[in-house]
Amino acid sequence: SQQGEEDPQALSIQEGENATMNCSYKTSINNLQWYRQNSGRGLVHLILIRSNEREKHSGRLRVTLDTSKKSSSLLITASRAADTASYFCATDALDSWGKLQFGAGTQVVVTP
Amino acid sequence: DTGVSQNPRHKITKRGQNVTFRCDPISEHNRLYWYRQTLGQGPEFLTYFQNEAQLEKSRLLSDRFSAERPKGSFSTLEIQRTEQGDSAMYLCASSFTGGGYTFGSGTRLTVV
């Protein structure tokens, strides 16, 4: 079973727009991570946010974490066609010793 | 170090045959993970190692699956008597304990 659930399942936007996707999870966590996957390729680590952090930025990415609601969001600002990919959240649960559980992902399509 | 390397990239095998995949992690990382991913889903945890010790195996990993990490370096994942349901992308990742994962490009297995 997968710990995280992303919402929406799919998102289609135009270049320059912002893309927001959400992740909900079930158990207490050490950290939550976001990954990107281009079609048929491996996953690329984007950002890690620890349970005592509320917001984190990396370039055009902004991640928030609300542990009281067990949810996180990933915002991609000023999207580009190259941002077209699937985005996954993954949780490192308190009792999992660094093992990640992934959600089903949000498929993002950015059209020029 | 050029990241996590997986071989082969693609494998087509007949049902009932045995297959073996190899993963070369980032040498400084102490953790190595195997995940399986089917179309439209997030990666599912199979097993992981800390150095040479296999710490956990998922219930998804039937008796036909075995993984090794001799001397805490590269790892192999073997599937015996393959079934059509084994067709998937097999992903390897490495990390420091509690850190973000670096994934390989995966091995796509097709069982015919």
Would you mind describing this structure in some detail?
By secondary structure, chain A is an all-beta fold. Chain A has no helices and eleven strands. In chain A, strand 7 (61-66) and strand 8 form a beta hairpin. Chain A is globular, with a radius of gyration of 13 Å. Chain A starts with a strand and ends with a strand. The model of chain A has no long low-confidence stretch (mean pLDDT 93). With 112 residues, chain B is mainly β. Helices cover 0% and strands 50% of the residues of chain B. Chain B contains no helices and eleven strands. Chain B is globular. The A-B interface holds A 2, 4, 30-31, 33, 35, 40-45, 48, 88, 90, 92, 97-105 and B 4, 6, 31, 33, 35, 40-45, 48, 55-56, 89, 91, 93, 95, 97-106, 108.
Structure at a glance:
The complex is a heterodimer of chains A (112) and B (112). Chain A has 112 residues and is mainly beta.
